[in-house]
Amino acid sequence: MTGAASRRRGRPPRTESAGTRDRILAAAREEFSERGYEKTSVRGIAKAAGVDSALVHHYFGTKEQIFEASVAVAFAPALEVPDAIADVPPAEVGERLTRFLLGVWENPTTRTPLLAILRSAVNNETAAAVFRRLVASQLLRRVAAQVDLPDAELRAELAAAQLVGAAMMRYVIKLEPLASADLEQIVARVAPVVQRHLTEP
User: What DSSP state is assigned to residue 88?
Assistant: First the structure.
């Protein structure tokens, strides 16, 4: 076996490790985005990244673990929500949370990978389980920790349901007139409902 072909098998030299891992992860995001969870394979990810399948397993483990790593990267902007509302007065938290999350969806750069995640989660239970774990541990529990009421987790989940529902209708299903409505109009309508979920008795 020669040169380039031999370098694609097994572990890469240390100087290549970081770049190789990033390349595999980028290829995985593309594959999951284009094909969905069920139709994506470790072999397909390896081929897209230009490496051997064993190297994909070395860095990420199973397909489920690769998907989880992809979700974590794609969902990273939304995971900043708890920090975004940390110092906000209680009376303004609904507006800030709504504006922040819809802003993530409004940006094409962050919206595209989120759409891929939602499509996979809706169509495959394994992908849905990965998505639930990430959202529960990294987002909802952290938001709930800032809600000073007995049923904080339920309130955080209801607020998230309101926002995810609005995002699905606007950006995935593209139901009119919601899909074409001005963002400020949507925030003005949705934020008070989110506020009630999070702060009202």
Answer: S
When pLDDT is averaged across residues 87-106 and rounded to a whole number, the result is: 87
Contact 152, 145 (CB under 8 A): yes
Residues 6+ apart with CB under 8 A from 117: 32, 70, 71, 74, 75, 127, 131
**pLDDT surpassing 60 at residue 106:** yes
Task: Reduce the DSSP state of residue 41 to 3 states and report it.
Answer: coil
CA 108 → CA 45, 112, 113, 195, distances in Å?
A: 24, 6, 9, 26
In the predicted structure, residue 6 carries a pLDDT above the cut 70: no
Hey, is 80 helix, strand or coil? helix
End-to-end CA distance of the chain: 70
Q: 34-39 — which CB contacts under 8 Å span 24+ positions?
A: 34/116, 36/116, 36/119, 36/120, 36/123, 36/124, 37/67, 37/120, 37/123, 37/124, 37/126, 37/127, 38/123, 38/124
pTM for the complete prediction? Answer: 0.71
Q: Choose from 73-77, 112-116, 142-146, 153-157 the range with maximum mean pLDDT.
A: 153-157
- Cα distance between residue 161 and residue 122, in whole Å: 14
